[in-house]
Amino acid sequence: MTGREDLLLGFRLAVGGGRGSIIRLVLSTVGIGLAVAILLIGSSAGTVKENRDQRAYAASPRNEPIPGVTPLNYSATKTDFRGQAIALVHLQPTGPTSPIPPGVDRLPAPGEVFLSPKLEELVASDTSGLLRPRLPGKPVGIIDAAAVLNPNDLVAYVGTDELSGGIATYAFGSDYGYETPFERGILSLLLVGLFVLLTPVFIFVGTVSRLGGASRDRRLAALRLAGSSLNQLRRITAAESLVGAVAGLVAGGASFLLFRGAVADFQVFRFGVYPKDLTPSWPLVALIVLVIPALTVATAGAAQRHTVVEPLGVVRETTPPQRRLWWRLLPVVAGIALIAPDLGVASELGRFALIGGAVLLMLGIPALLPWLLDRVVSRIKGGPPSFQLAIRRLRNDSGTPSRVVAGLCVVLAGAIGLQSLLTGQAVLTAGYEDRTEGRATVHADGPVADRAVAAVRAVPGAADFQTMRSMFVDANSALASFAVADCATIEAATTATGCRDGDVFTGTTSIQKGQTVKLVDNDKRERPWTVPVTPRPLEVKQSGLAEQLAVHVLATPAAVAGVDLAAAPVTVSLRGTTGDPDFVELVRNSVAPYSGQVTVASYNGKRASDEARMFDDARNILFGGALLVLLLAGVSLLVLAQEQVRERRRALGALSATGVPVRVIVRSLLWQNGIPLLLGIVVATATAIALAALARRLFWDGLYVEWSAVGMLIAAAVAMVLLVTASTVPSVRSAAKAENLRTE
């Protein structure tokens, strides 16, 4: 036969070889398809980052003067509505050539607002009526979704003719470095997680490619008897493997497209994904299309390296391979060598070293596990019959189960290690949380300060007011934070007692009675002030208003009599007494007419800082990714278990015929899957903690192992083995029937 005919024969054997061939094709398609979908998602990471950078670049204001352009007064503020952040971008043109932000075709006039698509949906769905007054104008249009940084961002462009303190903007499209050190650290960890979670995918593809090895060998022996040469057998084997690979590529591509259409609501901390963002680069797509079939063909060929196919049957080399340790330690040593130097995560070199070292450590698991499994099972003796059957099977063939379990343990190790790092950072960055007993803080610029304070005091249920008017004090050419407050506020925000109007309090700043200093406001206007009394020591209370404003000098109103403070901003702290859960929303609505000049902040005991939430979200992403790859491992393990039952049906029937109960056979399968898994869990946990211990100093010095997450991942792996074993019970019962031996 010609080479083309050999390939066609292989195709016919794969799809037309009876029910067994169809089952193997379906199982391999599912396994390879899931792996391809995961690889396509991972290969889209570069496009996601690039598209996001482009949107951030396009929306960033440029303040370098441009000839012929009248600047746009630009001010971005935020408000919250029931825990959702809303960005209010105030725009005040100064002439006909003022620039227009991306996403709209004109600037909003005073009293008009443009809303992002998600904000428009939120306004339309709000039945409480509390959100609409927050928007200082009439909605007149929608911001193009392609110009919004994240799909779920709530953004409003607000037109105004009264804006102070804005940025003079001459164009949009500056190179805006929006990534903070925290975000760079998280990005590095997510990249490590991406590579770690993708590493075992290739292991699972190789495992699925070995399906039907025994049946394939028997078919090849028949073809050898019919006169086929060894080269022809290799081509037929390659064609059979390619059918499953191509079907898996098609199924994986279809699954990826279905997932891509549903990612518009996917958002993690400050990052969101549009469907068009999830587009893998063509070089990576081509690489996946080439690597997956090549890997399946190479794996199928490698599976036959210890098999001699002759016309009268199949002979397998029965001597187990002698596994050597030295080369299996090389990935571990190389990984430690890359991570151990403190290169940092802000540099590209540090990121590549961290990613490469982590991947090498993960590759050490599949390299070491077969060697360890051989050593362990060779020293185990005794036990119940089911245990002895499993040990005997593992001694004869420990490579196949260790390969699947190794891939699963790579996922466990990567997930546990990254969970430990991210948990540590979340704990260390979660200190900035509410200790203010549910108080709200209102900060108003000087021009509207008095009107804003009056509006806040009129909110129903508002009580327990603490008010400070802030400036800076210039004493001996050193600026320090200065505030004016009444005695009730001072005693509530500091440890001072017996305060009297006319007192002055100071902390680290050295000022003395009779000394003349300068009071400086935000516009750098200076006012002379003579300290009227000897200052008393200042010690602020934790989370009090004085600590929030970082006040170094406090004065009572009588102590600054005669000094014009009308332009100084005012900060008010208050709490509600009615128990209304929307009290803070009422406060925000009361100052909505002064949007852009007044901000309202409210914290609670359960709300962590932005950085802590970022680490928490990243941890949840990696946890979900680990569970997804564990699902792929479960599919591979299920495929392997079903195939082993099919290939060993003669042996299982013989065991049953000699009186071995089916339950003993099932328990032996459980031991056969469970022993490599338990050994792999120990190796994976040790590797994960070592990875976290090596990498922790690249971020902070804290190492926290979240044993609950570790337990959940291990429990998921154990449960998966139990389910896989339970799924083989019907097949074992069928194979153990005595009538199956009649044809053997």
What does this 3D model show about the protein?
By secondary structure, this protein is of the alpha+beta class. 51% of the residues lie in helices and 15% in strands. The strands form five sheets. Strands 13, 14, 15, 16, 17, 18, 19, 20, 21 and 22 form a ten-stranded mixed beta sheet that branches. A hairpin with a 5-residue loop joins strand 17 (516-520) and strand 18 (526-530). Helix 2 (19-42) runs antiparallel to helix 8. The model is unreliable at 312-318, 428-434 and 604-609 (pLDDT under 50).
The largest sheet is: 10 strands, mixed
Strand content: 5-15%
Helicity level: 40-55%
Question: What ranges have pLDDT less than 50 throughout 5 or more consecutive residues?
Answer: 312-318, 428-434, 604-609
Number of helices: 21
Distance between the termini: 32 Å
Average predicted confidence as pLDDT: 78
SS-based structural class?
alpha+beta
Overall geometry comes to: elongated
Q: Would you count the extended β strands for me?
A: 22
Radius of gyration: 34 Å
